[in-house]
Design a protein that fits this description.
single chain, alpha+beta, Cathepsin B, Chain A, eight-stranded mixed beta sheet, 8 strands, 33% helix, globular
């Protein structure tokens, strides 16, 4: 005879056991992790800070102005000197004297020094034109313009575009011998000038308000330059006293402003 109390107790235990299993299965489904292969991935969002317009960038490693101290070197300065094999780079190499090429004396002066330092090779006119245009494009991007670049701005072409770095110096000229000393040491010198004070007979009258040329030699009475401002500029000879008067960094587009510009020069060691 079946004991009803024991039967009822067994049934209760069975229900509890199978109920616990069912609940465990259910909870296991709730906490099951998704398959890592099919789970969506969330890429991080990249945030960029606003960039500074290139036209407002501050100069990068622009050389500071240095003065040449008085020394005994002056007593041994040769009476004349000429740096051989300096290329002649005309600012309008294809003879296209348009509004652009009337403003490219600084770029041509830089290319003169660069080609001298990089092998003393005379580039073809078409090659010069390409190099001028590339420099102009860089100036417009970095400086915001290309016309009438000061000595410091011109130095940036050598420092940043041509990667000459600390080799570039801006020299404050206190007398003409400071310029001659650089040339005597074999260094072509980029010199800014109030163009109308130079007295170059090949300049279209009245001449440029601002100009840059490359000094490659001197005598006791003359300064010898490779002047990009004329097709007759190779070895062009300026009166030394007049050349000294004309040396001025760019200030503004006026004769009065240019006459107040500092006497500076740009040299690459």
């Amino acid at each position: 005879m079946i004991n009803k109390s024991r039967l009822w107790l067994g049934l209760r235990i069975g229900f509890c056991f199978f109920g616990a299993i069912a609940i465990g299965v259910y909870l296991g489904q709730l906490v099951q992790l998704p398959d890592p292969i099919t789970s969506p991935t969330i890429s991080p969002t990249l945030t960029m800070s606003p960039t500074t317009p290139v036209s407002t960038l501050s100069p990068i490693n622009t050389p500071s102005v240095t003065s040449i101290p008085n020394s005994k070197v002056e007593t041994t300065l040769p009476s004349s000197a000429l740096i051989a094999k300096v290329p002649f780079i005309e600012q309008a190499p294809l003879k296209n004297w348009d509004a652009v090429h009337e403003e490219t004396c600084e770029e041509a002066a830089v290319l003169t020094v660069v080609h001298y330092l990089e092998g003393q090779r005379q580039p073809a006119p078409a090659e010069i034109e390409t190099e001028l245009q590339n420099l102009i494009a860089w100036e417009q991007k970095v400086l915001g313009m290309y016309e009438d670049t000061t000595v410091a701005e011109t130095a940036r072409m050598l420092v940043e575009y041509f990667n000459y770095g600390e080799r570039v110096r801006i020299v404050e000229l206190t007398k003409l011998d400071d310029l001659k000393r650089e040339v005597a040491a074999g260094r072509p010198v980029i010199v800014p000038a109030a163009g109308r004070l130079l007295g170059n007979r090949y300049f279209k009258s009245p001449g440029p308000i601002y100009h840059m040329t490359v000094v490659i030699g001197y005598t006791e009475t003359e300064i010898i330059s490779n002047d990009p401002g004329t097709q007759h500029g190779a070895g062009y000879r300026y009166d030394a006293a007049q050349f000294w008067i004309a040396i001025h960094d760019f200030v503004n587009r006026s004769d009065e402003g240019m006459a107040s510009g500092a006497k500076l020069a740009l040299v690459v060691d």
